[in-house]
Amino acid sequence: MHARSAATFEISRERALQLFADEGFGQVSLRRLASHMGISTATLYTHVAGKEELLFDALEEHYEHLLLLAERGVRGEPAVRPRVQRLSRALVELYRHCPSRFLLATRERHCLRDGHRRRIDSLRRRIVEQLATWLQGGEAPTAGRVLLELIEHLPLWLAAHGLTAEQQTRLVDALLLGSLPGLRQLPSPEPILPTEVIHHAQLQGRSA
């Protein structure tokens, strides 16, 4: 792929993602998508296998960015407040550059094929593990999942109110910091035992 062609497609791709965000992934036909991007369907197929791959690539990039932010937090300043402040700034900046990805991640993730969905689920689990390490040394998976939900949704909620980037950053910071005491108190779920272990325990109980 020529560099110029790749750069042109990248610009078109952002328009495509915004179309998915505005109208819904399932409502956009391939012909409508190509027309909106300003290319033919044949040209579209030279870059991606179809619109689902376009969605997957965007969501994979999105969650890789969030994973990087979470990993930086674990490696950085041990105090929680500076970690959250850095995360708040980074989240607002990420949303400013890629707003459609936040909406697509929360609303259209279910449209992915099984293999692609498993990849996204794997990235989300890794983010949860990193966030749980922030909270209680990795022993807070429920809290990590809730914190990820907050991180995914807060930029969307706040952007709807016409706030400046600085105002959004301060609010994200305050909301995340305010949630931490409650998150730390969330119980961890009971471990799910393999079916064979449960069956063995049932047999042991019957023979006792």
TrEMBL record:
Keyword NAD: no
A Pfam family it matches: TetR_N
Key words, A-Z: DNA-binding, Transcription, Transcription regulation
Source taxon at top rank: Bacteria
Known DNA-binding region: 29-48
Example GO molecular function: transcription cis-regulatory region binding
Annotated coiled-coil segments of the chain: none
Positions of the HTH tetR-type domain: 6-66
InterPro entries registered for this protein in UniProt: DNA-bd_HTH_TetR-type_CS, Homeodomain-like_sf, HTH-type_TetR-like_transc_reg, HTH_TetR
Protein name: TetR/AcrR family transcriptional regulator
